Amino acid sequence: MRPASSSAFRPPSSSRGGGGAAVALGVAVLLGSLSLVAWRQARALEVLEQADRLEREVDLTRAEVEELIARIDRLGSRSRVVQQARERLGMRMPRASEIVFLVLPPKEVLP
Fold first, then answer.
1. Average of pLDDT values for 74-86?
2. Of 25, 34, 70, 76, which alpha carbon lies 20 to 30 A from 42's?
3. Which residues contact 85 (CB under 8 A, 6 or more apart)?
4. How far apart are CA 51 and CA 90, in angstroms?
5. d(Cα 49, Cα 68) in Å, to the nearest integer?
6. Domain ranges, residue 54
7. Terminal C-alpha separation, the chain
């Protein structure tokens, strides 16, 4: 018998080294895909947090607008205006003797 040569136990030349590169490429693609998914999830969470923050800002602004409208209504009420006119300006309702009616001459009608 002949001694077995080492070439009989060698894998075919087409599979030498090619399998390792394919596995490495597959792992690289998988890691790249996972990184992309993780980045997209993180970005989505950032956008959701920003949307929540803006929603809270809008709610606060709406509450402030409602409060300002109520304040304008209170400040513009007739009872408050009359009270402030008395206190700040010394205004009061005139007595009958203080009321003067002015009679104006009739307007001339143009032909």
1. 94
2. 25
3. 91
4. 54
5. 29
6. 43-91
7. 146
Residue 72 lies in a domain: yes
Amino acid at 28: A
Sequence-distant (6+) residues with CB within 8 A of 86 are: 92
Query: Among residues of the chain, what percentage have pLDDT more than 90?
Result: 71
What pLDDT is recorded for position 8? 57
Q: Which amino acid, one-letter code, is at 87?
A: E
Instruction: Please determine, for residue 6, whether its predicted confidence score (pLDDT) is greater than 70.
Output: no
- pLDDT for 10 equals 58
Run of H or E residues at 65: helix 18-75
Residues 80 and 74: beta-carbon distance below 8 Å: yes
Cα–Cα distance for residue pair 92/83, rounded to 1 Å: 10
The answer to whether position 55 is within a domain reads: yes
- Structurally, how many domains does the chain consist of? 1
Q: Which of the 8 DSSP states describes residue 76?
A: T
> pLDDT of 52-66, one tens digit each?
999 999 999 999 999
